[in-house]
């Protein structure tokens, strides 16, 4: 065991290193059929373990889900059969091919490599431990060997678990009921190269990998590709397991369309290439003595993508000399932010630092502390999960000279026992209901990273009113409706010395009154049980008496009153918005903008998405990072009921029928959870089974609709009129210009620019827009005009092949700055005949910037373009079914708007109409609706926005 010397002058001289690992190789419980493992001596076991590279094994095999086994155990029992390698130098498959006799003899290739042919003798006889082995085990206590009762001979087919016990299917049985087209789809999803690489026995047998999987492999829980886990799918979806169906067949032909997860969320995250910029912020005031160690500990981090900003708050010591020295020695690595006058508080510095950096993650590094070189590297991977808002590691307290002690380990254990030995990710609401509600588990801000998001000014101002526990209050706000991760291997050090605020606060009363305030804030935010509040109070009482404060300042209840804290009830509400995913569409753009506005209004908001494999990065970036994003695949694994409970969700607001299908069919959600649906057209565009529609309409509390036609699928369901609210959509106005000018796009200033913004699917008007434009151009040969097409998908891809070289037509793909594009356009065109069209956001955006519209009469478009007073901001074209007639009619509409006077008048009207689509009033309406729905669901509840 390695020992690290921390402080030679300390009482015991040495301390255990922070990352000491026990000699776990002495406690293995390996499968009995391990090709000689059971006959190794303790010394050979140590040799085998020492030759195994755990870090290499885990990083090279991200698909593994190790629970009861270590990586070493897994390799010995199964990994070698799957062709996995124990280190960077030994290749299992190559060794088996070079030594084919090992396959039939059942010998373990890695053990054979280490110990040679001497293992062959023990494999050929019964492997019951000898009396000598048993006596040695009893004497040493080092080895726990499983007892074998049968000889251990294996054939080639026994290179994977279950083989020999499972009868393979015939090819006819495996393919029964499948059409040639379906078989072709399965083969397209199957990865032969992956299968052969993962399972060397199949490669050696020279059998067809696809048919091996279909007839036997899935029964043995092998995987057909890196994107599908057979065992995971069967374990997660018990309906498929109970049916006896090949899970891969179900997923490829049905499960993908049902948005079922194919691999675990952990595997999904491991596949994500995630290396965000981390902004390290060092707020300093008179810590010149400690600055070098602090900066060195940041500069030596093994995680490469870190920017460093050092702030100084008018220090009177040599701090700036130290900082300037580091800036000179590390040019380009460190930037400074020096105050001309003292800011008056640490939170003013934190705020200045956070607002002045652009990293995805923030690391506030107190200038008198330090950390291990791999601290950031250990924490960053947690944020690949978009629901994680904070991650913290094992903070150790040190004395002024940096000698560590284990007191904070005891402190954490006392707050919540038994959870600190392993990595843990939990919803913030659950953390605060338990350990985080008892003690500030992040005793020093340098021991955590958090996702950078706009922190409201009032939050910073409130934090600044605390002298000691403002960081605890701030963690409560930053975590929001997301998750907090704990990583025990991420080590940082919290230096205690006389100038620490927390070190000198225990004797006065302000510290205890601040603790009362922070508990009241926690109780207003989350449902914190009485038992947690009582434990919190008893801890404070013990400290109050320890420092003899009672003798001077009277009873603790004068400053921190238990009954007052217990009387507080939750006031803030957590709204879960559910949408399809970050894919272009009104039913996705609107909830993103709504989420952003709700956050600004003070609600706790998180997002649930059902499609994460496809993601438009511009749309993803438009969501406020304070909105935590949960993946439906993770919810399935975590259990929906547990997810709703532990995240403290107050109400679910769905924007896609796929959410109802998951909540009420796959997840069997308790119908008592307040549930609101905004109908964007997905009901009209979906074939919902009658029994499912009954379940939905019985369970959903309230429906918001934007177009009367949204209600057609709900007719005859017996829904009371007071469960419906008609409400317009809205959008915040983007003030930024389009990234290109007309000149840069090759468009003349005198050209009439028509712009289509739509999803790239059929019936959204791509063909109609292009053909109508071409007719218009032919009719007006002397009139310069241009067509801009915005969107991604099959339709623009197909039309680009034909019209991509037309100088008057620009295929712009996805664009984020739609308001800006409409500002440089003359006319917005919306030739949609899509069945689910209701209240197009693109029309709202055009009207908001005064761009007139030519559109069809689908959904509520007519009412959007002309109000009750007759103010008209565009022209309406009837959406007839005959495509040729429709294109001619749409071209006529475009022809009419070429008239300069008409276009000018319509533009003025459009801007007037656009004023009704301000987001702020709509957020207020939704907020009132949320509150009413929550109270109606639970009359004892009082729902208010924060």
UniProtKB/TrEMBL annotation:
Any matching Pfam family: Glycos_transf_2
Domain Glycosyltransferase 2-like: 279-408
GO MF term set: transferase activity
Keyword Calcium part of the UniProt annotation: no
Highest taxon, organism lineage: Bacteria
Protein keywords: Transferase
Protein name from the UniProt record: Glycosyltransferase involved in cell wall biosynthesis
Organism: Novosphingobium chloroacetimidivorans
